[in-house]
Amino acid sequence: MRQVRRDRWMRQEQLQPLVVADGNPVEVAIVGCYQLHPTAQEHPRGWGYLADDGHYGFGATTTRRRFDGQGELAAEARALFWALLRLLPAHHVTVVTDYPEIADMVNAWRRGDLTAAPPGYDLSDRPSGREAKLMHLAPRVHQHADQVDVRVADSYEDTALGRAANELSVLGWKWCAGELTKTTAADRALAIASKALGVEPILVPRMNGTEEQDEPHDDSSDLTDHLSRTSQDGSDSMSNGSSSRSRREPLINGRRVRIADLIDAGLLAADTDLTFQQRIGETPYRATVTAGGHLRLPDGREFATPSRAAAEAAGLVAVPGWAVWRVQPSGQTLHHLRVKLLKDVAEEVAADQARPHKEAEAVRRRFAVLEEARAEAEEGTPRTLTVREFIRHWGLEDRDRTTSAQIDADLANHGLTTIPDFRTVSLDKTIRIVVLPEGDSDDAATDVASDGVEATTSDDEESVDFGLTLGNLLPDDMSLAWVSPTASFEEAITAMQVDDFSQIAVLTNPYTLHGAVSWESIAAAKHRNARAAFSDAIDRRAATRVFDYNVRLLDVLETLQQSGFIFVRDDQRKITGIITAADVVRKYDETATPFFLIGEIDQELRQLLQNTFDEETVRQACSSAGSSFRSFDSMSIGQYQAVLDNPDCWQQLDWPLDRRVFIKRLDQLRKVRNNVMHFNPDPVRHTDVDKLRHFLDLIRRYSR
């Protein structure tokens, strides 16, 4: 067989514990992922596969002209290609797919019909002279027809292999779309595959440390980079003006600045020398900028981020690389160049006539606010405000994973962070905007840096998803009630009764928990000795149940279940709150009501579509909106929206309602649904719960 060009975004590995000898049967699940990209003209098609012998792969392609049929089917065909290319003829392979078209194609190849392909697939050779990938695979399948079987599953969710393959395909999409770095995608893929197969995450070493490939390609570029360089006919454009503008576009929407961005903007050149010095008089550490946007240390090691390069050079746990590396001979820090780039981007946005004025003004204002906050923090007077006030600079009323990641990236691009972390406390908690720690050796080498910022914090690391934390649960309008170890029974009992508490903290000072007193501990002490002293009723085991505000709730549920309550300390190590099992129930009750309402809306819409339209009508409506339809049972709210927004379908519904107003509200509820299903830390607003109720009533009123 002739060599084939690997996809621009792809990775293939095998787990060491599951390696089997050639000739053994192997089952492999393949899945494709196709979603419209909000800003790109071409849309990624992610693919993934996982075999029970530990082989797995994932990646994506954006080439639109190869396939004019269903995007998801095209992506799954890509997964088939790479899976069989890797596994055949070494093994007897059973392919598991949820597309009958894939099974029909493979079986046709086995019978000798080497031109079989999914609808819309271009069988001709590519402009480069290469053979179409599926036509490249067909002869191999025919040659080893007795070693290939295909099984059609109702859904990829039917098996652990299928579910993991789906997760891998989504990783490929996100990597291609620039939402994940190559390293992060690879790490997550290893975790997904090893967890699905129940083995240790140990990979088979690669030959010479690399994957086989016939041509070099750049895996580090994101989708925006690729699309901005690709012309209509697929060739690379030599023009750099529109490319730079497209490349910079994500910087205003929450992507962290990279060294490559500085090079593209002409602010930094390859082979430039950088230095950083921990202390005056010490020999500075050195690095060189590479053409690929990495930093190369004198020993030849290269690192993609300044922080990692600085930490490795100095032998420290963490160093804020953007702040410490200085360009020679000018002496400017990388952060200075980063700010200049961001300022240029903000000015470009403001001058862009095609962009709405309100959006352009918001970008400019946000840049100014962060620069002012940086100056105030450097002067030692950090800006303080509530989380609610803080996120309004991004036009937000509450937080979700996507917007929190954008805010975190914007902060990092300005060398800032918040204390406490804005994601880990409630909306009305006061935070301070501070500069990331300067990374002198004493602080950077310890677990906690100065001013309470974790030493591992880096302004070019991936954003962390905290989930629901203890700080999110603490009420803002309630301070911790406590008594001293020398208090009396009367004092403790009165303090509990006035606020209807079941327990109260016993503190030596605001930072030292001595224990807790509860109705239960008082009763036990008095039962043992009617003349018991107050100290006899103190449960000193409670002093071991103190957790930081940024600890995830899931990590302490078992402790809460066993003891009934825990204590929380803030970023200053002060004991500031108590969380009980009742607080957890209350929090989940906030989520339960909208959760059930969304479930009922989903059921009503599905039943409405089933009773009104046939499958072919729904499939065509979904296809017109860029979505693939499998069955009524697997439809999403976005697909309901696609069908009901179709003028012909709406007319067939024959409701005396305005389609645009109806769809606008359905789209609003889709966003509410996403927040609820992702368990975002902020409660669903009462107005949104009311919208869910009213919309459910509306559907029931007209569908009966």
UniProtKB/TrEMBL annotation:
Residues 229-244 have a biased composition (Low complexity). Residues 209-250 are annotated as: Disordered. SUPFAM superfamilies: CBS-domain pair, Ribonuclease H-like. Residues 242-346 form the RAMA domain. Coiled coil: none annotated. Residues 218-228 have a biased composition (Basic and acidic residues). Pfam families: RAMA. It comes from the Bacteria. This is RAMA domain-containing protein. It comes from Micromonospora saelicesensis. The lineage of its organism: Bacteria, Bacillati, Actinomycetota, Actinomycetes, Micromonosporales.
